[in-house]
Amino acid sequence: MSIERLDLNLFRVFDVVMRCRSVAGAAKELGVTASAVSHALGRLRQALGDELFIYGEGGMVPTARALEIAPAVVEGLGRIDEAISSKPFEPAVSVRTFRVSATEYSTLIILCGLVERLTRIAPQLELRIFPYSRTDVVRHLDEGQIDLVVGWFGELPEHMRRTPLLDDREALLVRRDHPLTEGVITKARLFAFPFVVVELTGSGDPGADGFLDERGVWRRVWIDRLLMEASEGEDEVAHVALSLPHYSAVPDVLSRTDMVATLPQRFARRFVAAGTHRMLDLPHDALEASVDAIWHQRNERDPGLQWLIAELAEAARRA
Questions:
Q1: What pairing do the DSSP bridges indicate for beta strands 97-102 and 240-244?
Q2: Residues 23, 115: Cα–Cα separation, whole Å
């Protein structure tokens, strides 16, 4: 069907249903009745020759065709909104919700400082943080269900943008009275103790060199350097006794066992400062990684989002 004969408001309804996965939820957001939403969906289904959504246990489930067109619909609506919007973003009076997917590490090290600042300069903004561990994070970014993803990344497709926030490096952390706190640490001594490692999706599959390829976005989900080295067939192999999807549980595990862990240094320092743990020298060059924020190119000229990214970078600078 030619777009000249299609009501573009139907795509607005489509976009909201895609995000809400509910006719009632979409009706509430749009300020119309549920029957009006159903009628709009019916017209769009007829025009596109596809059901678009079917009822499932979790609500409205998009069809393959709906998933295919969703990114283009979100981008098109964003461009229309950008074209007709001329109001500058004013954080002090703006009422807006920003949706950010972030690692637990990024939340603790960067976002907590950002929230502290936003409560003072943008009191009416709402920041919603979603888990980086989800395997559909990049799809949600493509479809406009989240605005930013903060984490560790490798390659990005052309339609994604990034800005570096901070650099960190791995650190060896043990409880303060661990046997390794005495004497020189060699790889043989280190590997004599069991390891606890963090794999952010909890899937047990680190992918290629610790990265997961999602729609061309290479997202690091496995941080532990020693496990990757062990997979290369070296004679000395670390015994991974525990794999966790969260950093916050690692220090408590270390406190109760002889396990060791390599963690981002900025995170490890917090427990060293508390006097409960020790950071020790690694028997190899420490892995270094950059924490980035990524977003879709359609939001390149969104003044609100660009303001938030600048504030995020400032919070990272102060971390």
A1: unpaired
A2: 33
Per-residue model confidence as pLDDT tens digits over 242-294: 988 888 899 999 999 999 999 999 999 999 999 999 999 998 888 888 999 99
Q: Hey, which residues does 240 pair with through a beta bridge?
A: 195
**Terminal Cα-to-Cα distance of the chain (whole angstroms):** 53
Cβ neighbours of residue 198 closer than 8 Å, sequence gap 6 or more: 222, 223, 224, 243, 244, 245, 246, 247, 250, 261, 263
Q: Check if the beta carbon of residue 27 is closer than 8 Å to that of residue 33.
A: yes
Which amino acid is present at 218? W
Confidence of residue 206 (pLDDT cuts 50, 70, 90): low
The H-assigned helical ranges of the chain are 9-20, 23-30, 34-48, 64-84, 104-106, 112-121, 137-142, 187-191, 225-230, 250-256, 265-273, 303-318
Cα 163 to Cα 305: distance, rounded to the nearest angstrom: 13
Question: Cα angle at 213 between 212 and 217, to 5 degrees?
Answer: 115
Residues present in the chain in total:
319
DSSP structure string for 148-208: EEEEEB----TTEEEEEEEEEEEEEEEETT-GGGSS---HHHHHTS-EEEEBTTSSS---B
Can you read off the two tokens belonging to residue 233? 């067939």
Separation of alpha carbons 45 and 158, rounded Å = 31
> By the 8 A CB rule, do 242 and 221 touch?
no
